């Protein structure tokens, strides 16, 4: 018989967290960060998929660009998940949890190179919107470490979106 999945914001309850942010506020921030993690992981997977499957005249450029992007995303995933843990909550870590939390729809087939660029543009903008919302939550409860992570993520995703948009011009 299958066990019920615990929610991603369950408190670890082993040793109390006393970092100057209330338990309720830490739960709110962890919930928002879990959405950022889910969007980031979905974008990572999409970008890696496109790296493997891109074809056409821009193959080498896109293959290399996508590798740079998914490598940066892979490293960022750890920072986001570890911040959720530092707040005293478990980070989501399954495809089912990510699918439930993510705002990004994954493609159901292998798109053309131009459509890959467009889908990654839209997905980077989606992560930026999710990160901006999470930033507002972190800022409201005076959570500077989370706000710092989110500011860095906003910078990366907005710059990546600009670069992808430039390829479509």
TrEMBL record:
Pfam families: Ferritin
SUPFAM superfamilies in the cross-refs: Ferritin-like
Segments forming domain Ferritin/DPS: 32-168
Membrane-spanning intervals of the chain: none
Gene3D superfamilies: 1.20.1260.10
CDD domains reported in the protein's UniProt record: DPS (cd01043)
PROSITE patterns found in the cross-reference section: DPS_2 (PS00819)
Protein family: Belongs to the Dps family.
PANTHER family from the UniProt entry: DNA PROTECTION DURING STARVATION PROTEIN, GENERAL STRESS PROTEIN 20U
Name listed for the protein in its UniProt record: Ferritin-like domain-containing protein
Source species: Paenalcaligenes hermetiae
